[in-house]
TrEMBL record:
Gene3D superfamilies: 2.30.42.10, Trypsin-like serine proteases. One of its GO terms (biological process) is proteolysis. Residues 119-136 have a biased composition (Low complexity). It holds the Pfam family Trypsin_2. The chain crosses the membrane at residues 35-57. GO terms for molecular function: serine-type endopeptidase activity. This is Endopeptidase. It comes from Ligilactobacillus pobuzihii.
């Protein structure tokens, strides 16, 4: 206490024995325990306040989080965006002319399957028919009540019945007008009742490597009909070997290469330019790299439109393609060793390309012209002959009955002769082997 009788803020205990203040720091008696008890109670109460405060704080945080999450709600914009492209415009110009082609053939296995279930194999309901193949096609001409469709020969080859599925879903009976195994093209005829769009052909000689190319068709069948894929022209003229369904080489073809996705079912569908014109008929794709079986992507091939037009016109008119032929078996000079070129063929060193005559058929126009086995043909008409492909291209520029000049080497000396192309090369005598022309 100070002199005024007020507590001065300092607490000192008195020793009960002598009445003097105790400053030893030892036990402090009842008042100290009272203070400790009060502090303990305050701590418990304070703890409750803390726990309760934490719970209140957590609830506040949850409410705030829910409030923040509500801000994540979104909606579609009502702003109209006009999205258009050249590809879309090209597709719209031709999509109605692209069809699915379904080919059906009888399958004897159906009778054995039916027998397993105690049924007769002679089922008049048509169960003996099985879908053999499915591809694509494009309507290229409409004349009166008839419309014409071009597709691949391998799509309809061997079929007993063909149907055409229009882009609007109508399925039509289809007549095969003509087909050609050499070019792998076929012309079909359908009722024009549901035909609303007809495709036009562009000039395949005027395409450029790198320009946009669009492929349209039914990859994997009509469930994916009128599918559009986009790529570029990878090569204008690519020479590839052609094989039949048995894997036997039947010749070579000059095709357009594209990286637009082409899959089974796209065969016969159009490859178009950005103007919506048909520049090729999709025919095949490369899926593996020969014996290595390496996976290959982006290598599809289409028959050039200029060749397509020439072939389909003949098929529509005559039901077949008539081609001139030389009536010989031949081999590229590239396959002949340097020693055989000198010893057997007796060629001068300046001759590095051409085709070697391996056999002259009895009905060949070259037989009476003096051309013999092991002669080397280097020119036909005004074209140089470097290999089988260039010979075919030069030959097919002419018609049966045309007279052409043939340049060749015999016993090392260059000669020439004029021959009349009087042979018709049809499916039977051109598709049997790759070395016949």
């Amino acid at each position: 206490m100070n002199n005024n009788g007020q507590f001065d803020g300092e607490y000192k205990e008195v020793d009960p024995e002598n009445g003097s203040p105790n400053n030893s720091g030892g036990p402090r008696g009842p008042k100290l325990w009272k203070v400790v008890l009060i502090a303990l109670i305050a701590g418990v109460i304070g703890g409750g306040v803390v726990v309760g405060g934490y719970s209140w704080y957590q609830n506040q945080q949850d409410e705030q989080l829910n409030s923040d999450n509500s801000k994540a709600k979104t909606k579609t914009s009502n702003v109209k965006v006009n999205v258009s492209s050249d590809a879309e415009g090209a597709f719209n110009k031709i999509k109605g002319a692209v069809v699915s082609v379904e080919a059906y053939s009888k399958d004897d296995r159906s009778s054995s399957i039916a027998g397993m279930y105690g049924q007769s194999g002679d089922d008049s309901s048509g169960s003996q028919e099985e879908q053999a193949s499915e591809g694509s096609g494009v309507i290229y001409k409409k004349s009166g009540d008839t419309a014409y469709v071009v597709t691949n020969n391998h799509v309809i080859s061997g079929a007993d019945r063909v149907e055409t599925l229009m882009s609007d879903g109508h399925k039509l009976e289809t007549e095969v007008v003509g087909h050609d195994a050499v070019s792998d093209l076929a012309v079909l005829k359908i009722d024009a009742k549901y035909v609303k769009q007809v495709a036009s052909f562009g000039d395949s000689d005027k395409i450029s490597v790198g320009e946009t190319a669009l492929a349209i068709g039914s990859p994997l069948g009509s469930d994916y009909a009128t599918s559009l894929t986009q790529g570029i022209i990878s090569a204008k003229k690519r020479t590839i070997d052609v094989t039949n369904s048995s894997g036997v080489a039947t010749g070579q073809a000059t095709v357009i290469q594209t990286d637009a996705a082409i899959n089974p079912g796209n065969s016969g569908g159009p490859l178009i330019n950005i103007g919506g014109q048909v520049i090729g008929i999709n025919s095949m794709k490369l899926s593996s790299a020969g014996s290595s079986e390496a996976s290959v992507e982006g290598m599809g091939f289409a028959i050039p439109s200029n060749e397509v037009v020439e072939i389909v016109n003949q098929l529509a008119e005559n039901g077949k393609v008539s081609r001139p032929a030389l009536g010989i078996s031949l081999l590229d000079l590239d396959y002949i060793s340097a020693s055989d070129r000198q010893k057997t063929l007796k060629l001068p060193d300046s001759v590095t390309s051409g085709i070697v005559v391996m056999k002259v058929n009895s009905d060949s126009p070259l037989k009476d012209a003096g051309v013999k086995k092991y002669d080397v043909i280097t020119g036909l008409g005004d074209k140089k002959v470097k290999d089988i492909v260039s010979l075919r291209e030069a030959l097919y520029e002419h018609k049966i009955g045309d007279k052409v000049k043939v340049k060749y080497y015999h016993d090392g000396k260059e000669k020439s002769t004029n021959v009349k192309l009087s042979l018709e090369a049809n499916d039977s005598n051109t598709s049997a082997a790759s070395n016949e022309r």
